[in-house]
Amino acid sequence: MRWLFSRASVIGPAHVLSGLPNQDSVGIRTCRQYWAASVSDGLGSKPFSDVGSKLAVKVVLNSLHDTIDSNDHHKFVTHLYNEWLKQISPLKATDAAATCLAAFGRGGDCVRLVQLGDGAILYRSRGVTSLFTSSDNKFGNETSALGSSRRFSDWSIIDIEIPEKGDGIILMTDGISEDIEPEDFPEFMQSMYESLRRKSTRARNSWLKRELKAWPTPGHSDDKSIAVVFRN
Length: 232
Known about the structure:
Layout: E1 3-10, H1 13-18, E2 24-31, E3 34-41, H2 49-62, H3 64-68, H4 73-88, E4 100-106, E5 110-116, E6 120-125, E7 128-132, E8 155-161, E9 168-172, H5 174-177, H6 185-196, H7 201-213, E10 224-231
Antiparallel strand pairs: 1-10, 2-3, 3-4, 4-5, 5-8, 6-7, 6-9, 9-10
């Protein structure tokens, strides 16, 4: 079996009206049997959050080979954070705060999921859909993020298996995840797989972008980014 990849990001109507950039970012990288996927949501209150989110995805994708033989979760997320802090300079880290959601294919069926901040990661393993829950316990409009969090406990990280055809992972910023009821997650996962499984890579990405631009929730305003990986 091979892996199926797709991604898309669109600017939210509120940012279009305000003349602001898309503060989300998304990316996927593959290398033989290994791969990495990431989405990041720049905190809207920060002046350089779009820069922070783009760098978060870049750091994740560049860390692909670091996860292959790494079983030390603390060491791994420390590496991610330190790389982001180093490369965000000379900007002030707090001015570029961004969430970090990532999935790493580590060879075979093994996948590592990593989350800091809001948004959601869904995964289906052996036909069972689960929500990977962030340890974010901030209040109000605060969220854990690169540039604001300092504790390892702010991160959620788990190693899972994605062994069967139709199993997969969906990473979403909160502009998408907050509009989907939890009881609808399995249907959303299945619908996504059925819609993408027979398309080419270019057709998959175009279809996803059209779906995000035509998002059906009335009054939606946020940027929307998604990365999709399935066994096919």
